[in-house]
Amino acid sequence: MIHIFIHALSASAGGGLTYVRNVVPRLALRDDVRATLLIGKTLRGEILESARVAIISESYPESSLSRFWYEQRSLPNIIRKSGADVLLSTGNFALFYSPVPQILLSRNALYTSTDFMKDVRERGDYRLWMDTKIKGALARRSIHSADCTVAPSETFARELQEWSGKNVRCVYHGFDSEMFFRDPAALPDAVRSQLSLSEDVIRVLFVSHYNYYRNFETLIRTISILKKNLHPRKVRLILTCKLISEENPGSYRADTAAELVRQLDLNEEVVELGSVPYGALHHLYRACDVYVTPAYAETFAHPLVEAMASGLPVVASDIGVHREICGQAALYFPRFSPEILAERIGQVCESAERKTAMREMGLLRSRDFSWDKHVEELLLLARQLVGAQRGAVA
């Protein structure tokens, strides 16, 4: 039996939460694994202890850099007391002096993205620019400190290798179809009323909270073009966030996007649902006509797999990760071109044949991603590291 310490203090939104919610329950079902899970307030009460999973819930500084130094000082002793054989660090940063072999999950593309750094400078957000530079330096050192670094896609693994000079392995993130579709409850009435389901409307869906690298502004400009091109037919951009800075995680300012909506007179066309419960998301995907992501930086993109599994055609920005995850099941566009994105959306919505073909290819592609397979590969890697350490000691 192997004992894994999972350091997940940083799991508070997006991919981090998705990861813990899917991986930990699978470890709890195994007879050959024990796990100790370190989590923060976001997951308290959501994941319960079991015979195989012990939970430690810590309070920690709110600032990510303060939390990093807190972890460097406090975690080694916590890990020793747990008796764990191997450490799984899930939040891009490693323990520089881990008492056991360490696997680092690296899933933040911003540290390697020249587009992001340019975008932040152009917005005049120099505090975020400096914060990203500092975190990038710590993330690079983390790759050198970990015994093994894992990325959720081959494309991002190659980026990290070129950036750090260290070998990085790809272990794909997964998708649990049974879990995703299991909640039969309909969308809340407040959400359904905003979707105009009784009208002849093209519904373009984007699932994300607001941040810069998701490239909302390109998508908003696209809706303005579609509004003109499709008239008198209506178009709606369905967002699972609100373009209000205080209602999104992180320090990203949504003012630019909100002002662009006003300038382009899209208050009716841009529907800001806010956060939708995860269990109801599959109903939202199926209520829409096309899923779009204009992101210019990405490591895996779970919503792409969710959209394909829901039978929703995908149009994605032409970056390596999107092509790797979707393959031929999606149409692609240059990441900063609202004109070509509008053209691609039109190609999907105006051809029932194309829409059906994309739906079938997407359903097939979504089945290639499995959390069970992810856990198996992760455990194999963990056993190899522990075995190598014990062999070296012997």
Would you mind describing this structure in some detail?
- With 394 residues, the chain is an alpha/beta fold.
- It has two domains: 2-174 and 370-389, Rossmann fold; 182-366, Rossmann fold (3-Layer(aba) Sandwich), CATH 3.40.50.
- Helices cover 45% and strands 15% of the residues.
- The chain contains 15 helices and 13 strands.
- The chain has helices at residues 14-28, 64-82, 114-122, 126-145, 154-164, 177-181, 189-192, 216-230, 255-263, 281-287, 302-309, 320-326, 338-349, 352-366, 371-393, and strands spanning 2-8, 33-39, 53-57, 86-89, 102-105, 148-151, 168-170, 201-206, 234-239, 270-272, 290-293, 314-317, 330-333.
- It has a seven-stranded parallel sheet with strand order 3-2-1-4-5-6-7, with helices on both faces. It has a six-stranded parallel sheet with strand order 10-9-8-11-12-13, sandwiched between helices.
- Helix 1 (14-28) crosses helix 15, helix 8 packs parallel to helix 9 and helix 8 (216-230) crosses helix 13.
- The chain is globular, with a radius of gyration of 22 Å.
